[in-house]
Amino acid sequence: MPGDHRRIRGPEESQPPQLYAADEDELPAARDPTRLRPVYARAGLLSQAKGSAYLEAGGTKVLCAVSGPRQAEGGERGGGPAGAGGEAPAALRGRLLCDFRRAPFSGRRRRAPQGGGEERELGLALQEALEPAVRLGRYPRAQLEVSALLLEDGGSALAAALTAAALALADAGVEMYDLVVGCGLSLAPGPSPTWLLDPTRLEEEHSAAGLTVALMPVLNQVAGLLGSGEGGQTESWTDAVRLGLEGCQRLYPVLQQCLVRAARRRGAAAPS
Amino acid sequence: MASVALSEAEKVYIVHGVQEDLRVDGRGCEDYRCVEVETDVVSNTSGSARVKLGHTDILVGVKAEMGTPKLERPNEGYLEFFVDCSANATPEFEGRGGDDLGTEIANTLYRIFNNKSSVDLSSLCISPREHCWVLYVDVLLLECGGNLFDAISIAVKAALFNTRIPKVRVLEDEEGAKDIELSDDPYDCIRLSVENVPCIVTLCKIGCRHVVDATLQEEACSLASLLVSVTSKGVVTCMRKVGKGSLDPESIFEMMESSKRVGKVLHMSLQSILHKEESLGPKRPKVGFLG
């Protein structure tokens, strides 16, 4: 939006003063590469959404809400051929629309919510990771809307959003094959690069590469994978994926307990 | 992506064939279709390339313009990608239909170039904090015949190889006013080194095996693919799972090994053909769109 120059006498674009300050010498402290930060998860907290979940891992706080199933927009599509797995025809399958948003105060610099770019890419990554888990064939001509809101970015934001979205879908009672658990990794540069599990924001900023893995723990299938950077040879990335999958398996019991507690709470609150 | 209607029988035929390492057009699982690459097809650009991979047709134009460096990186230029899915490719792209696919491809391109070693960005700097070269890479999708990402990355690499950025000098007056002077000789230009520019290898999972360079029909049979961006030295810069299915961890590791092998061969052949084309000189017969 163009600035109002008559009333607000100031530059059109402003930057925080930290950019002009001397470089901070804060390097991330050395730590066990396989440690996972303690996770707090709670499902069923928003009254207006069909299902919702809040996940906190270290400094990362994500809130996710699911609404639907409601009638799919996009008009008629003729009956197409059946899918490869003998499921409902492509046009009759439900749709999953995922939206990933960062709150403007979630990072170090204020970011106005932009239309395209990173948020669209992460929304697509969410959709690609959640689709294998949801039984969309059971929701013909319907769409499920998942919206993830990142309140504070403390590292591995996409992984936390994935986990929160899967919890919210389960809380909404959507039929799923399995939960999806996400885990973030980053490559600490240096003479001997090591992959760190569940990095903090500082570690991510100083990293040479980043990777997010999404796993369906019971079926042991990788639902999503997104990584980029100077990660080195394929062996290095293979190790990273293995480490990430292990981290996802370790996180699974916490999420199970969270869903059980939410179900108990719902059972206690319902009028008998 | 363009969709093609396949019957169950055709799908079964393709899947069974892939099990035996025999695809519909006779290729093996790790073979590419015949690729045609031609550079310098558009005269108004700093560099351009056209790639034809089976029925997939991509045209890339690179324009070098002067801009201001980004705040966090004052000594470097940068690249901006834009992908346009033309309505010629498939009727689904008419109007705003191709926008989603275009942003997805552009975001993937940003991701694969988002590291220090792919392109030497410091060579694009003219004067720190004030002027730098911005390379606007515009990709035009003319025809969609499967395996878009691979073809686009090959075309981007060829176009960057062909890019000629004019040499400029910054002259400073006594008062400190800076003036930019373009060199008089039109052939006096800087070239980019594309040694470390990665290429994308898409591996589609069909049945229990994976195939490289899938046609539209094969993509319709595959539920999940792995997109790996690999340089000529085998360094992986981006990895992404595409599609609505899931992948077994063991098959991911197999696919990554394949992508390294296939990527090396792809880079070697692309480098040799680009050098061969360049050695033909400016008088070579241009094929363009008529061949």
UniProtKB/TrEMBL annotation, chain A:
Q: Which residues form the Exoribonuclease phosphorolytic domain?
A: 36-175
Q: Which organism is it from?
A: Mesocricetus auratus
Q: Which UniProt keywords apply?
A: Cytoplasm, Exosome, Nucleus, RNA-binding, rRNA processing
BP terms from Gene Ontology: DNA deamination; isotype switching; nuclear mRNA surveillance; poly(A)-dependent snoRNA 3'-end processing; positive regulation of isotype switching; rRNA catabolic process; rRNA processing; U4 snRNA 3'-end processing
Task: Give the protein's recorded name.
Answer: Exosome complex component MTR3
Region Disordered, as annotated, extends over: 1-33
Q: Cite the SUPFAM superfamilies for this sequence.
A: Ribonuclease PH domain 2-like, Ribosomal protein S5 domain 2-like
Localization per record:
Cytoplasm; Nucleus, Nucleolus
The UniProt entry's sequence similarity note says: Belongs to the RNase PH family.
User: Where does the protein principally reside?
Assistant: cytoplasm
Automatic annotation (TrEMBL), chain B:
Gene (UniProt): Exosc7
What does UniProt give as GO cellular component? cytoplasmic exosome (RNase complex); cytosol; nuclear exosome (RNase complex); nucleolus
Cite the Exoribonuclease phosphorolytic domain residue spans from the record: 32-166, 196-261
Please state which protein family the record places this protein in: Belongs to the RNase PH family.
Keywords, sorted A to Z: Acetylation, Cytoplasm, Exosome, Nucleus, RNA-binding, rRNA processing
- Segments traversing the membrane: none
Which organism is the protein's source?
A: Mesocricetus auratus
The protein depicted here goes by the name Exosome component 7
Subcellular location(s) of the protein: Cytoplasm; Nucleus, Nucleolus
